[in-house]
Structures are given as C-alpha cells and as structure tokens.
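Researcher: We are triaging several targets before committing to wet-lab work. For this one, the compound of interest is S-adenosylmethionine. I'm pasting the protein sequence and the ligand SMILES. What I need is the predicted three-dimensional arrangement of the protein with the ligand bound, expressed as structure tokens, so it can go straight into our comparison scripts without reformatting.
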Amino acid sequence: MTRNENRASEFDQFSEGYRELLDRNVAISGETSEYFACYKARFIAEEVVPRPDCRILDYGCGIGLVCGQLKRRLPRARIDGYDVSRTSLDHLDATVRKEGTFTSDEGELGRDYDVVILANVLHHVALEGRLDTVSRAAELLGVPGKLVIFEHNPANPLTRRAVASCPFDKDARLLPPRETLRYLLQKEFRKIHLEYIVFFPRRLRWLRPLEPFLHWCPLGAQYVVTGNKA
Ligand SMILES: C[S@@+](CC[C@H](N)C(=O)[O-])C[C@H]1O[C@@H](n2cnc3c(N)ncnc32)[C@H](O)[C@@H]1O
C-alpha cells in the first residue's frame, strides 16, 4: 500500500473526456493530443531506449496516450503504467492494458525498469512533493536506467496561455527547466541533459525539419530532461 493509493485524484473527474479536453486545449497549435503523444514516443524510441525489448514505466500515465504510441513504435517493449487516478487507468486502450501492468499501487510494479517516464506530471504535484515524486519514480529504475521528464516550458507564451485556459491545469504550477534539473542533481543522476522540443505549430509545419537543430533554444513549447541512474 502506498501513500498515493489513499489519495483521491483530481484527475478522476477528467478521465472520461480527458482526450477531448486535451484536444481542445492544444488546438491553439493546430494539432491534437495524438501529435504530442507521438512526439514523446518518438523521442523515447529514437533517443532513449537501450534496446527494442526493454522495460518502460510511464509514471503518471493517465489514460495512456503516450503508452499507446510507445507500443506502436516499440512492439517488443514491456510497457507498464502507474497513476494515482484509478479512473484514468480504466480508459486505457485494451491492447496496451493487456500487455502490461497498469496500476495505482506501486507495490505491483517492477523495480528494474530500463526507462521511467514522467510526462507532464510534475506540474500537477505540489512544490513540496515534487522531489519525493522524482525519488519514487527513480527507485523503480534498474541500474543503469534512464529517467525522462517531459514538462511544459513556462517561458513559451503559447504554452502559458494553453495552461491558463485548461480545466485540469487549474492548480498546475509550471516548473522552469532549472527546477527539474535540480531534482535530478539532488538524486545524483549522471549525464543529465536538457532539450527544448515542440517549436512549430501546424501552420508552420514545413519548418519542423529544423527542430533537431533547435534543442538548445529555450522557446520550445515543452522541454525534456533525461538522466542516468548512478
Ligand atoms: C496531464 S496528465 C498527463 C498524463 C500522461 N502522462 C500523458 O502525457 O498523457 C497528468 C497525470 O499525472 C497524474 N499524477 C498527478 N500526480 C501524480 C503523482 N504524485 N504520482 C503519479 N501520477 C500523478 C495525474 O493523475 C494525471 O493522470
């Protein structure tokens, strides 16, 4: 039994229409929630996983948008998910659910994941609980294992606007990259790396081939921090 198990999750109330709410919220970019989930899955498949049959945990997986895209790109990987919102887990795609463990009980998870992802989770955790959340996710990694944290970039005005109008972001507090980096440093991760991602809206999609050259530019809509467990 974990502490999170007993906590009613604010996301339970949004799980039913979560995808539609998110689609509406990201419409400002001309894309849907699928585009953002694909982006993250592609990053993990191309830049993070050590081998195609690795073990991945999506910590704060919600209704499994990223898990579904990961399964398509890495069909031989084992993909598990954890979320404090039980009802969100009820909305997972049946195929994804069948092939992994999806739970609100950390005790049911492995302790030797190759990759643990926290995708847009930490800005929903109160400031005083964030290091603990990173810590708990890190404990589930094997050695060597990689932690991957995606977050909204508070320096991007369109991101701030989208968050301000999103019903499930009402209590969200965005993390500047330096805060996320600090948690990995405090947990003694090695090879800590920051990249900015998601630069161009759909109407400028012809510029997207430039994105791999812009990872240094602090204007991406989101950012990703990775680190290796020591
Ligand atoms: C914005 S949603 C992101 C869901 C998913 N990662 C995605 O990218 O589609 C944030 C999720 O984090 C979960 N969450 C919030 N606090 C958490 C915590 N302390 N531990 C695990 N999950 C948490 C919420 O229940 C919610 O499902």
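Researcher: Any quick observations?
Model: The chain has one domain: 4-228.
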